[in-house]
Every structure is written in C-alpha cells, then in structure tokens.
UniProtKB/TrEMBL annotation:
GO molecular function list: N-acylneuraminate-9-phosphate synthase activity
PROSITE patterns linked to this entry: AFP_LIKE
Record protein name field: Pseudaminic acid synthase
Domain AFP-like per the UniProt entry, residue ranges: 297-352
Length: 352
C-alpha cells in the first residue's frame, strides 16, 4: 500500500524528512479560565510547539446528564473515579465563545491552532474559524460518520487510536479515504491517563505505518518526554502532548501534562532524535574524514639502518594512519630494512 510521504498543516510540512511536528494539547487544562487558556496558547508558542490543539464539544453534545452507572466512571479510576461524564465534561469543555479569541491569539503569537470536533456542530464551528486540520479523538474513532465529515473538508485529519483494534483503525482510515482525502496521520496511543511507559508499545509504530499506508504519529499520555523521543526514533512524524501552565492546580488533565520547560525540552529533544536518524547506511561520514587520518598504522618508531630487522622495538602500531595496517606486523616482523629509515616514518612495503 502506497503511503503519503508528507502533509502540510499551516506553514509546516509533516513527514519523515521533516522535524517532528509537536502539538500542545490544551484539553481542559484552562481550568475554566479564558485568561489561562490564552496563556497556554502563548506558552506553547514560546516553548516552540508547532500547534496548540483544543477540544470542541459541549456537555450535551458528548454525553447525557445522568447519574446512571453507564454514565459514571469506575470508582477505581486514578484521576476521575466515580465522577459522572456530565460533571467531567462540564468542567473540562472549552466554551464555544472562547474559540474565536483563542484562534486570534494563536495568529498573533504565530502558532497554528486546530481542534478535535466531537459532533457535526463542532465541525461547523471550526470551519467558520478556518481550522487548518482536524483531530479525531480515540473514543471517536468508531464514529465513522464524524470521521467522514471531518475528512470531507479536505484538510489533514489526525486519527488517534487508543483502545482501537486493527479493524477499527482500518475502518476509520478507509472512511477518511472514501472522501478523497489522503492527508491522514494515524496516532499510536494508549488511552490511559496517565499511561505507564511500559504500556506504550512503540514497536507498533512501523507496523502501523506498513499496515495502513499513512504517516504515523504518537499521542502521549505518559509523564515525561522519554516515550515521545523514543517514538520519533521508531518513525513517529508527529507528537501530541497534553500541556499545562503548572501541574499543581493546573486543570483536569494537569497531572500527566507537561509544564512549559518540559514542553520546550520535548520540542528540542525530539528534533535531536529525528536528526540522529540520518540515513540507512553504514560507513564513514564526510564529517569523519579528519578522524580517518588518525587511525592506527605501523610506523618506524626508532632510527634504523639498512639491513636491520623489523622488531617490536623499532616498528609499532601508533596513530596516524599512513602506514601499513597493524595486522601486517606478523608479516613484516623479521624482515630487513632496505635502507636507512628515520624515526616517525610510515612503514611501507618498499622499506623492507
């Protein structure tokens, strides 16, 4: 299956030949404050992220106001145990009237902004605002009508795959492709909050790339930046990371989100990881040519006269690399010099 080599979001190309595209996920870490949401946009730009991402829903478009067991998180959930979905999403949602000022702030500070729509009315709002891409959240991957609607806008579509089976991912990718849209990024993801690094299964990244013929990224819910850096080494071209101004009291997702200095480190270190990938070749690099001059070789290390035998006292393996290979000593030992040779002369066959 042919794969897309790159896509464009805003001013940035995304693909194996470009530095990793870093998305700062705001989620509910605005903590109900527009001022804090605007500050997160500015922080993401200052940290060097390429994009900041919102989540666009209302409590009534994502769930029902109900205390029934179906609508309540398990008591044992590490972060939100026992809460109703309505209560959680009421706290975490980004009010629709905030979207325009957030888009304006992003334009002002020079960072791309887009969102995850959770229903058709969210897509309509984001279209009005000129969102340059769409992200499908892990839980929405099975909502194929939503996938098709977002993909039909002809913009890059990023599909997160937490909890999804191979067949479910395939169905979502084909739903997007059915609209004629090939600008697809599939995100490896573990939908656990926070996720233990051991749950990341990053070796699946090249498998996903080959299976679905798309660009592959990584949506990270671990604490720290080790997993995202490793994901780039395995082929992720995009990394999404939840961010907060500070974890202490920083919002509903803050406990597993990156603070400003961590986001900056994520941007710089994933770029380093990508630069380290280089090319699939083995051998001396152009930058190593000077080093090649100073490999070891056989040199005359004491003044000798014609007729003297080659011994370990007058010929040794030293740096630099102009003489015979060190392994040739067993062949030259005991032979006699054909002329006087000064100390510091590279040993060559014509001298013995």
């Amino acid at each position: 299956m042919a794969s897309t080599t790159s896509i464009t979001i805003g001013e940035h190309r995304i693909g194996p030949d470009h530095e990793p595209y870093i998305i700062a996920e705001m989620s509910g870490n605005h903590d109900g404050s527009l001022d804090k949401a605007l500050a997160i946009v500015r922080m993401a730009a200052e940290a060097g992220a390429h994009a900041v991402k919102l989540q666009t829903y209302k409590p009534e478009t994502i769930t029902l106001e109900s205390d029934a067991p179906d609508f309540r998180l398990s008591e044992g959930h590490e972060l939100w145990g026992g809460r109703t979905l309505w209560d959680l999403y009421t706290e975490a949602h980004t009010p629709w009237e905030w979207h325009a000022p957030l888009f304006e702030e992003a334009a002002k500070v020079g960072i791309t902004i887009f969102s995850s729509p959770f229903d058709p009315t969210a897509v309509d709002l984001l279209e009005e605002l000129g969102a340059p891409a769409y992200k499908i959240a892990s839980s929405e991957i099975v909502d194929l009508p939503l996938v098709r609607l977002a993909a039909s806008k002809g913009k890059p579509i990023i599909i997160s795959t937490g909890m999804a089976s191979v067949s479910e991912i395939h169905a979502a990718v084909e739903a997007a492709r059915s609209t004629g849209n090939e600008q697809i990024v599939v995100l490896a993801c573990t939908a656990n909050y926070p996720a233990d690094p051991s749950e990341s299964n990053l070796r699946g990244i090249p498998v996903m790339r080959d299976a679905f013929g798309t660009l592959i990224g990584y949506s990270d819910h671990t604490i720290g930046i080790g997993a995202p850096i490793a994901s780039v080494a395995l082929g992720a071209v995009l990394v999404e990371k939840h961010v907060t101004l500070q974890r202490e009291g920083g919002g509903v997702d803050s406990s597993f989100s990156s603070e400003p200095d961590e986001l900056a480190a994520l941007v710089s270190q994933t770029k380093v990881a990508w630069q380290c990938l280089g090319e699939p070749r083995i051998g001396a690099r152009q930058q190593e040519q000077e080093g090649l001059r100073f490999r070891r070789s056989l040199y005359v290390v004491a003044d000798v006269r014609a007729g003297d035998p080659v011994t370990a006292d007058n010929v040794r393996s030293i740096r630099p690399a102009n003489g015979l290979a060190p392994d040739e000593f067993s062949r030259v030992e005991g032979r006699r010099f054909t002329r006087d040779v000064a100390r510091g002369t590279a040993l060559s066959w014509d001298l013995i």
